[in-house]
Design a protein that fits this description.
alpha/beta; globular; Rossmann fold; 8 helices
């Protein structure tokens, strides 16, 4: 009898744990159009890497078994997945991903801004992460779309796929870009725009944006950080 109980105990110990469900699939779509110079590109990538290492963000990503992907985009026909879907199974994985983001070379320069094309391209990869509870495209940009498919023409397909689009508007050369992104780019329940005054402001803003997307909406912390103030007189959420 004692041997039977011992065998049962060992069997229970070795039985594989049920994998945790993926809470969020997050595609990070970074603008590398002609208006972004080499220093501004570096500010984006270093800022994004630092935001992924933020203690609250990293805790929520690991706890939620998040899947992350990096896309570089510019004009028509120039969008590329430069880091494919990566499951954040631990802090070591996330740290390696942050290093890869910071060191990643730029794919294009000196081309137009095709936001609609970037959204349509990025959307194609979400069937690979269909098991995730939330699906999100996080698009950054410093200008309005000026080439290819208008972004609002992709909204129907994004809604059908259950994909939310949030944005960070870098208003260095276009002071009204936040309003443009609100009206034409973001889509989905709870979608919002964060404003960066310039590229130097980007690192702190992307950190706050990820806190809002990942920590407040995914991790359900008991004492979450303060929600950013509304970004538009009419509200910063789009349904």
């Amino acid at each position: 009898m004692r041997r039977i109980l011992f065998a049962l105990a060992v069997g229970l110990t070795l039985w594989p744990c049920t994998p945790r469900a993926c809470e969020i699939a997050l595609a990070l779509a970074v603008d590398v159009s002609g208006s972004v110079d080499a220093g501004e590109y570096r500010l984006q990538m270093d800022g994004l890497a630092a935001a992924l290492r933020d203690p609250l963000v990293s805790e929520a990503l690991v706890r939620g078994q998040a899947r992350l992907m990096l896309v570089q985009w510019t004009g028509m026909g120039r969008q590329q997945v430069t880091i494919p879907w990566t499951t954040v199974t631990g802090f070591d994985v996330l740290d390696a991903l942050a290093v890869e983001v910071a060191e990643h070379p730029r794919v294009w320069r000196n081309y137009s801004t095709a936001i609609g094309e970037a959204l349509r391209y990025t959307m194609r990869f979400f069937p690979e992460v269909s098991g995730c509870k939330r699906r999100l495209i996080d698009v950054s940009g410093d200008g309005a779309s000026n080439e290819g498919l208008p972004p609002e023409e992709v909204h129907g397909a994004l809604n059908d796929a259950g994909i939310v689009v949030n944005a960070i508007a870098i208003e260095q050369s276009e002071p009204e870009l936040t309003a443009y992104f609100f009206e034409h780019v973001i889509v989905g329940e709870g979608a919002f725009v964060v404003t960066a005054a310039d590229f130097a402001d980007y690192p702190e803003k992307i950190r706050k944006k990820l806190l809002r997307e990942v920590v407040l909406q995914t991790a359900s912390l008991s004492e979450p950080p303060e929600t950013p103030a509304p970004l538009s007189p009419k509200a910063d959420e789009k349904r």
